[in-house]
Specification:
Elements (H helix, E strand, L loop, with lengths): L25 E3 L2 E2 L2 E2 L4 H8 L10 H5 L1 E4 L6 E6 L2 E8 L5 E2 L9 H7 L4 E4 L8 E8 L3 E7 L5 E7 L11
Parallel strand pairs: 1-7
Antiparallel strand pairs: 1-2, 2-3, 4-5, 5-6, 6-11, 8-9, 9-10, 10-11
Length: about 170
């Protein structure tokens, strides 16, 4: 559930977001732009220069929430117990990994940039679509590339173990 509207969260921080726009973000297993995996909700708010909030009266939202990043097309973050555990992008995003892999990349391009890889049939879709995971720290920190039936990346999750969740907070 990407439940929270955050207003103009990143106005001025992204390319095309206003005068003096910053460099485009690079996605790593540790974060993207000013965001770092493991940041508290308040640290992420400070890094972005905008307040982030989760409905503290909703125990499910505190346990796990996904928040769209307005101003950053097709990107969102996951917080679990008010800590950032994952950054995600999907079709339409121009964000690339630090090794140049973005939406539309091929399985061969992923293999050329990242090794070793854990490759499985994609959840819900099955082969030929795949979940291709590279762990910078096995089981703890990595990047998961989701490919479609044509073998092209259509979603990327970066961060901790939550990159393996089948959908959202599940």
């Amino acid at each position: 559930m990407r439940a929270l509207s955050l207003g103009c969260l990143l106005a001025g921080l992204m390319t095309g977001a206003g005068a003096g726009a910053a460099e485009p973000w690079s996605l790593t297993s540790q974060g993207a732009g000013p965001l770092r995996i493991g940041m508290s909700l308040s640290q992420a708010s400070l890094a972005l220069g905008q307040p982030l909030s989760i409905d503290a009266s909703d125990s499910d939202a505190v346990a796990c929430s996904e928040i769209d990043l307005p101003g950053v097309d097709h990107a969102w973050v996951m917080f679990e117990n008010r800590r950032m555990t994952r950054i995600s992008i999907n079709t339409g995003s121009s964000i690339r990994t630090a090794r140049g892999i973005g939406i539309g990349a091929t399985e061969a391009e992923i293999a050329g940039a990242y090794q070793p890889l854990d490759i499985k049939p994609r959840d819900y879709v099955g082969l030929p679509a795949k979940d291709i995971t590279w762990w910078s720290v096995p089981g703890n920190s990595g990047i998961r590339f989701k490919t479609d039936d044509a073998g092209r990346v259509d979603m990327i999750h970066a961060g901790g173990p939550s990159i393996e969740y089948m959908e959202g907070c599940a």
